[in-house]
Amino acid sequence: MARLTSDFWVSAYLRQAALDGLVAVLRRRGASEAGAIFVKLDRLDGTAVLYGPAPQALADDDGGRRFQRLLEADPLTIEDRVAREVRFDGDLWLVEIENRAGDPRLQLVD
Q1: Order of strands across the sheet that contains 93-98
Q2: Are 6 and 93 in contact, with CB atoms under 8 Å apart?
Q3: Known Pfam families for this protein (predicted)?
Q4: Domain 6-98: which topology?
Q5: What CA–CA distance (Å, rounded) separates 99 from 68?
Q6: Integer Cα distance of 92 and 81 in angstroms
Q7: pLDDT band for position 55 (cuts 50, 70, 90)
Q8: Neighbours of 37 (CB within 10 A)
Q9: How far apart are CA 30 and CA 52, in angstroms?
C-alpha cells in the first residue's frame, strides 16, 4: 500500500486534533512528499515529549506512519533537540499538540 504524503498526513492529524477539541499547530513545514514528521506533545504541566519517525524496520505493511518516543523532558530541552534535528534534516515537519492527558494521538512502536 502506498504511503500518504507528509503534507496530507499532517493536514489530517491537525484536523483530527481539532475535532477532538485539542490544540495542535504546524510549527514547521517540511518537504511535502516525504519529509520526516516530528510531533512535540506539551502536557501543559512543564513537561513535554518529542516523537519522531520509527525506524522503517518497525513500520506497518498498511502504509501508516509509526512514531517512537525520542525524548521526554522540559519544553526548552525539547526545543534544543528539535533545533539539532532541523540542522540535520532541513526538510522535517514539526507539529505541536497540547494534551494534559499525555496522549499524542499517534501510532507508537514499543
Answers
A1: 23-28, 93-98, 37-42, 48-53, 67-73
A2: yes
A3: DUF1491
A4: hypothetical protein tt1805 (3.40.1530)
A5: 18
A6: 13
A7: confident
A8: 20
A9: 14
**Would you put residue 72 in left (φ > 0), alpha (ψ -120 to 50) or beta?**
beta
CA 82 to chain centroid, in Å, comes to 11
Confidence of residue 61 (pLDDT cuts 50, 70, 90): low
| Averaged pLDDT for residues 11-20 | 96
**Contact present, 44 and 98 (Cβ < 8 Å):** yes
Give the cell for residue 81: 533537540
Residue showing cell 532541523? 86
Cell numbers 518516543 correspond to 69
DSSP secondary structure of 18-63 = HHTT-EEEEEE---TTT--EEEEEE-SSS-EEEEEEPPGGG--TT-
Reduced to 3 states (helix: H, G, I; strand: E, B; else coil), residue 68 is strand
